[in-house]
Structure formats: structure tokens, C-alpha cells
Amino acid sequence: xxxxxxxxxxxxxxxxxxxxxxxxxxxxxxxxxxxxxxxxxxxxxxxxxxxxxxxxxxxxxxxxxxxxxxxxxxxxxxx
Length: 79
Description:
The protein is an alpha+beta fold. The protein contains two helices and three strands. It has one domain. About 35% of the residues lie in helices and about 30% in strands. The longest helix is centred in the middle third of the chain and has 17 residues, at about 40-55.
């Protein structure tokens, strides 16, 4: 399974510019506003990217399902 890439997106509000993180986690898009300056947003992005790379957020690779040859033949014939 691919490790998600965390992107920083600049969001203009009424009076201030905010930075948000944008990434996909287990098939769901996650967007969260982190900071109002880019330096702090880069620090948080690096931490979040490291957590995602190490699998701390519960990202697990897809597990293969092993079935017997009889079950495979039965499924094939049923189709």
C-alpha cells in the first residue's frame, strides 16, 4: 500500500492566511488547518508524514485472503 503524501495548502481567510494539511488516510480525505505561518505548518507536516510512514495512524497493507482450490472452483462455477 502506498504511503500518503502530506501536502500543505495555503487558505486565504478574511483577514489572515492559514495553512492546512491535505492527505488521504485509509481512503478518506483529511484536511485540517494547522497554523497561520508556513514555518509551523512545515514542522507539523514533517511530523504527520513521519507518523504516516511508520504506520502509526492505523494504515495497514491489504491482506490477501487465501482460499482452497475447492472453494475457488465452486465460486467459479457459481458465476
